[in-house]
Amino acid sequence: MTPRERAARAGRWLVSGPPLVYLVLFFAVPALIMVLASFRTPGEFGGLAPLVDESGRLDLNIESYVRLITEPVYAQVFVKSVGYAASTTLICLALAYPLAALVAQSPKRHRNLLLLLVILPFWSNFLIRIYAWMIILGPQAALARTVNAVLAWFGADPVALLFSSFAVLVCLVYVHLPFMVLPLYANLEKHDPALLDAARDLGANAWQRFWRITFPLSLPGVYAGAALVFIPALGIFAIPDILGGPDDSLIGNVIKQQFLETRDWPFGSVLSIMLTIAALVLAGLAAWVGRAGISGQRPGRA
Amino acid sequence: MRRRRYWLWTAALCGYAFLYVPLLIVIVYSFNDSRLNAEWVGFTLDWYRRLLADDGMLVAAGNSLLIALVASAVSTVLGTMAGVAMYRYRTRLLPILVLTPIAIPEILMGVSLLIFFVMLNFTLGLASVALAHIAFCIGFVAIVVRARLSGMDESLVEAARDCGATPWQAFRHVTLPLIMPGVIAGALMAFTLSIDDFVITFFTAGAGTVTLPLQIYSMIKIAVTPEVNAVSALLMLLTLLLIVIASKLSPSLYQSDQETPA
Hints:
Chain A contains twelve helices and no strands. With 302 residues, chain A is mostly helical. Chain B is mainly alpha-helical and 262 residues long. In chain B, helix 1 packs across helix 11 (226-249), helix 3 runs antiparallel to helix 8 and helix 8 packs antiparallel against helix 11. Classes of the chains: A mainly alpha (302), B mainly alpha (262).
């Protein structure tokens, strides 16, 4: 090994070592501890029971996993969370498409500003964005009064907009919309306008041009956006916590409850591990589909 | 074609309205002379005055600032190192460790750090929150720095090395000045993420420590008051300033095909 090679190797460790050590210590180790905690017994006063019990035996069991399988209420919460996350993803896609298309089609000098305007709300505080919907959907606000006046005119009972599944869904869409616009824009912006011109010359109308050219070509962007919306939406707890009714508890709320209220950490860990697996599988799937979509993308076939 | 554009503009304007009207309502009602956030009564600065006299809020703001300063300083150094390492070396482990905290739902990092700190008998408080914030900010800084590096002309570093610069000198005098806008943008991003974070803070702060988002949370769980609007408006203003500066420094933050000029 020449001195220069040795210096290069030392430099490599000097540069990548500190962040590596930090993330192992404060991300990887806590994750592994959580896996271990999922096999332990809940403590008498919450938290965890001692790892080694009085008789000196290692106290590890799969009771929390058994509980997850035998109590159907938790599977139902998972299904409900997936339902909310999927609805959020679809609504975001429908709202994000015109926004992304407009930014991609506008003159180059306007694009940065239009895109910044999409991202800015994302940088305002998460709780403030939830709070805004508490005001808008509140029982004394104009929206709820109008809706209930119309309902009363039809002879229907008044409804509460706040503390409902509706409020949760609206806010989920609101919070995650920028994550869908960004990858869609990145994709749409690369489309060759000549394809659409050619399609028009061959007699395709606007509807056909969109569904047979633009949309299939944008699929990698759609998948990327779907992953960026679906995964965080699956684990959310603050939105149902603040805007939802009693039936809107999602998996994030149950995890929070297990850690802070019931204080059954082993079971909370089991639920967290399930959520992690779901998130990682989905992220991997999106990356794989995205890559397959790009390599298999041929304008002639689309 | 013109009709299609017209339709597109209408749809997109509705999209922008959906994004901005809620935030505007929060700001407008922060000046409203009424306890109820329901209709406009008259202009007042009373809620801001009340905010400045609210000791709990001021303590929370101080804690948030302190945590954000420490977390952004440390995560900028570690994140820049990670960004350089990911760009320059073929490492497998580092990108996984850097990107996974960003990819998974925040609550997972919150609860795993809660178990971790409690098992180590580490008292939950300002320090545990700052340590947690650093862990999730590293990834964001690393991404911005790596994006900046990929727009850099690598032959400049080679020229410096050929002229006899040590690797450190080449980094200090060539690479670092060139990626500095990215580093500063990453630092501002980390600061914003830290000061705004609710979920991870919620699990790692313990009972006695309050930050601004935690204070806002406990206030809106009890009641909707214009004081929350006032603190929200101020926080939005701060975030807006930081992000506009960051995006001016590093356009690649929001551009997909940017050839970053050096």
